[in-house]
Amino acid sequence: MLQIKIKIEAFGAIERHLPTCLEISCNLNSSVYDVLNQISFDYPSALAMLERCACAIGEDIIPRQNKLTSDSTLVLLSPVAGG
Q: Which domain of life does the protein's organism represent (predicted)?
């Protein structure tokens, strides 16, 4: 099975739970959900934040069902509150 590399960039509260240079190897056509599961397994303190974060590639917010077809940078955005 072909492997791809997903670089993780985290912003907001989740950033404190993950290393700054995080990269996950996964199978071609893995979903964003699969990558998040791997991160939560490796960094259990981030689990609660991962369940609520938004995910983006480039400028686009993407659903967790999105399939990853090439090396990418997955951006994790913590929910924000305020007003």
A: Bacteria
pLDDT at residue 81 greater than cutoff 60: no
Model confidence, pTM = 0.92
Domain annotation covers residue 82: no
Tally of structural domains, the chain:
1
Give the pair of three-digit tokens for residue 48: 């609660």
Q: Calculate what percentage of the chain has a pLDDT beyond 70.
A: 96
**E strand map for the chain:** 3-11, 22-27, 54-57, 60-62, 72-77
Enclosing H/E stretch for 34: helix 32-42
